[in-house]
Specification:
This protein is mostly helical. It has 19 helices and no strands. It is elongated and about 100 Å long.
């Protein structure tokens, strides 16, 4: 029997080494160059808020830790008094509380205060708070990436959790945690964090990371035989990338495993509608998925369409010939094998496929001749 050289499309690690640290550095650069303003803040009519602002400024400028702590204590006391006397602007009070707690290193307190401020803020001020959150998030992600690369994954996880405490609007810390849990075969935790990464933000810069994370979720759910959840995960992913044919084929396979053949067939029937917009490699990936599902004629169709865009791709031709053999399409095996041998004439597997093509045609002499080669 000819060997079927198809690689399993396992979930991939979606964050290349160092990408989290690079993302953190970009966040810090954005903090320096694109600082949005929160013009809605007001200390008017409140001496307590004026005192809190002055203390925050001095704390931020202080180089000695004990001096910083003293000014931050003054700021928090003044803000508490502003809350009690009821004369200060609520947005400003909670915004200042968030700044104070962040400077103290109390990320949970800062998150809680900023959340209350965000409920009162306009879009401009919400953006400014997000920038402040990112500025605190970035150092933890950068150090977490360094610890992960050094093999200190428990330390990395602790740092990523701190990062996620203050900012959850970027996927990188979630993805890094998902990769760690995936490498530890803690699949349930990996699914949780990849899903959080996929839903982290709508920013265009994060789109490639988001869709890879969601695709991981779907494949991992299939692996765990959590098929109804896999169905939902594939559909969530396909809302982002509706023309990913291999994901559509994987969805159809999950539907078949769920004993939903009519729905699966509907997906298979519409599979190649978007083929014109797919790259050759996307079509080759689709062929692999279909072959694994033993949908051999459709696998062959995917490889045919991929080769129409990339005619000299050796693996595409190899897989096409194998698909014809599996589909018992005797008329097409030989032409595909001949194309393959023209590219790869000294490869034993290519010659085996050529021999199979002649055998399917009933040409015993040519079959023997090729096998002797």
């Amino acid at each position: 029997m000819l060997r079927r050289c198809f690689a399993w499309l396992a979930p991939v690690s979606v964050l290349i080494l160092g990408a989290a640290a690079a993302a953190a550095q970009r966040a810090e650069q954005r903090q320096e160059t694109q600082q949005p303003q929160c013009r809605s803040l007001s200390i008017r009519g409140s001496s307590r808020l004026d005192a809190a602002l002055q203390a925050l400024v001095r704390a931020d400028e202080a180089s000695a830790p004990e001096v910083r702590r003293r000014f931050l204590g003054d700021a928090v006391r003044a803000l508490g008094e502003a809350v009690r006397d009821g004369r200060g602007d609520p947005l400003t009070i909670w915004h200042f509380f968030g700044q104070a707690y962040a400077l103290q290193g109390d990320l949970a307190g800062a998150d809680s205060a900023f959340r209350r401020a965000e409920t009162l803020a306009d879009s401009e001020c919400v953006a400014e708070i997000a920038q402040r959150r990112r500025a605190r998030w970035a150092p933890f992600v950068r150090e977490g990436s360094a610890q992960s690369q050094a093999g200190n994954v428990d330390s990395a996880l602790a740092l990523y959790r701190l990062a996620n405490t203050i900012y959850r609007g970027a996927p990188f810390a979630f993805i890094s945690m998902g990769n760690i849990f995936l490498n530890r075969t803690q699949t349930d935790s990996a699914i949780v964090y990849f899903r959080l990464a996929g839903r982290a933000s709508d920013e265009a810069d994060y789109f490639p990371y988001r869709w890879r994370a969601l695709l991981n979720v779907a494949h991992l759910l299939v692996r765990e035989n959590r098929l109804p959840e896999a169905d939902s995960a594939f559909r969530e992913y396909l809302r982002l990338r509706p023309y990913d044919l291999s994901a559509q084929a994987s969805l159809a396979g999950a539907l078949l495993q769920s004993n939903r053949p009519a729905e699966a067939q509907a997906v298979y029937d519409s599979l190649f509608v978007g083929a014109d917009s797919a790259s050759s490699f996307e079509l080759f990936d689709t062929g692999v998925v279909l072959f694994q599902q033993e949908r051999f004629p459709q696998a062959a169709r995917a490889f045919e369409l991929g080769l129409a865009k990339n005619p000299s791709h050796r693996d595409g031709l190899f897989n096409l010939a194998n698909s014809y053999i599996a589909a018992n399409d005797s008329a097409r095996i030989l032409p595909a094998a001949q194309r393959l041998v023209a590219l790869d004439s000294m490869n034993r597997q290519s010659l085996q496929l050529l021999a199979a093509g002649y055998l399917a045609r009933g040409d015993a002499n040519s079959t023997v001749e090729v096998l002797l080669r």
